[in-house]
Amino acid sequence: MLVGCACTVMAQDEPTKKKERPSREKLFPRLDANKDGFIGVEEFKLPAHRGALVTDEEKKNAFTKIDKDGDGKISKEEFVSKKKAKKPKKDSE
Hints:
mainly alpha
């Protein structure tokens, strides 16, 4: 019983370590399931935020923000870059 108490005290004294996220550079190959050098919509995954499920619309919006050239796939350069995507120009016909 005394040993259990000592462990509890030791655990409280240790600083809690945050789980480190992998860099975007390291994450890209994990998401590129078919290894074609791009992340397609079907390969694109978002982590749940605080246990909440990600909707298809949120996934689509996030994909669009990362797909800077709007070609429907995310290159490694687009994925690693932190610059925001350009908004697509609307045709004025």
